[in-house]
C-alpha cells in the first residue's frame, strides 16, 4: 500500500509529496533503545510491559552502554554499544543510516542538559533522513511497537 500526502511548499504551491510504503511481514527485526539518565527507569518499565513480545527470538535489541546495562539487569538480552556521551548515539545513527534498524526508541530527558547534544540531534536527524520510526516517549513507543511487532511472522 502506498500513501501519498500533498504538502504546501513555503511558496504556497502544492508540489511536495511524501510517500509512505507499508512494510511487508517480516521474519525478524532490530530495535535500538536509548534513554537519558532521568528516563532509564521509564525505559525498563516500558520494556517490561512488552516482555512477552520482546522474548520473541526474532526481535533483536541494541542499546547504548548504560541504558543497555539497565535493560540487561531487567532480564532482557541486548547488544550493548558505547555509552551515549562516548559515541553510542553515533553508533546507533550509523546503524539507522545503513537501514539496519526497524525502530529507534529514544527516551530523551527534555529537562536535563547533555554534553553530547550534537550527537542526540544527529541521531534524530538521521532517523528522519532514512524514515526510521523514532519514538521519544513511552506513549509513542507503545503505539509504534505494537504496530511493528504485529508485522512479525508468528
Ligand atoms: O546518553 C545517552 C543518549 O544520548 C544514553 O547513553 P547511555 O545509555 O550510555 O547512558
UniProtKB/TrEMBL annotation:
The active site is at 89 (proton donor/acceptor). SMART domains: MGS (SM00851). One of its GO terms (biological process) is methylglyoxal biosynthetic process. It comes from the Bacteria. Transmembrane segments: none annotated. One of its GO terms (molecular function) is methylglyoxal synthase activity. One of its GO terms (cellular component) is cytosol. This is Methylglyoxal synthase. It comes from Cecembia calidifontis.
